[in-house]
């Protein structure tokens, strides 16, 4: 094969490659129908760390960051907060205060083993009625919990000298506040009068 025929075959291969890309309909430069995102249609890889971080933020917001609005308090009934913090909520608060997730395998790893959680209610009270924007007259119900987490703290360090550190009597105290609102007054009558 001579040099011109090699050059011709290279050009022919390039033209066939570009032609096959343009006929698939998936390449951003050739799309003529519908919306055209140009270079933004090419997928960008996202690290698992950022994906898990976003999923954890959504989980936290969906379950624990919003205050529910409950019906009015009835006279003569015990006014007690009904829901202590869940184990998941306590462990997420502990992870936010002292992160364990992450680390580098075989270099530095940190684990919590044999976790036991003790929850104590330290306060349960209701604020006087006031008007909240977009809600109306309501009372805020506060419940404060002291959560003591007992666990075995294990740290495995792999460099420069491999060793393991164990603290079998580790403990942390996390304070969790549960606040929610109770409507005040004749809520059903107010809704009927608006209709």
TrEMBL record:
PROSITE patterns cross-referenced by the UniProt entry: PROKAR_LIPOPROTEIN (PS51257)
Protein name according to UniProt: Uncharacterized protein
Species this chain originates from: Bythopirellula polymerisocia
């Amino acid at each position: 094969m001579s040099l011109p025929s090699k050059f011709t075959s290279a050009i022919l291969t390039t033209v066939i490659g570009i032609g096959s890309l343009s006929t698939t309909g998936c390449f951003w430069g050739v799309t003529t129908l519908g919306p055209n995102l140009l270079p933004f249609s090419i997928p960008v890889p996202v690290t698992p760390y950022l994906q898990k971080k976003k999923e954890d933020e959504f989980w936290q917001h969906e379950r624990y960051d919003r205050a529910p609005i409950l019906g009015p308090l009835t006279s003569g009934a015990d006014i007690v907060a009904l829901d202590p913090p869940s184990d998941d909520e306590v462990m997420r608060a502990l992870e936010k205060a002292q992160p364990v997730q992450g680390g580098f395998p075989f270099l530095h790893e940190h684990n919590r083993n044999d976790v036991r959680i003790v929850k104590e209610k330290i306060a349960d009270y209701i604020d006087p009625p006031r008007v909240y924007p977009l809600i109306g007259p309501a009372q805020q119900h506060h419940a404060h919990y002291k959560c003591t987490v007992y666990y075995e703290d294990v740290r495995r360090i792999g460099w420069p000298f491999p060793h393991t550190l164990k603290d079998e009597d580790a403990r942390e105290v996390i304070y969790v506040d549960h606040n929610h609102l109770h409507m005040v007054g004749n809520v059903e009558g107010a809704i009927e009068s608006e209709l």
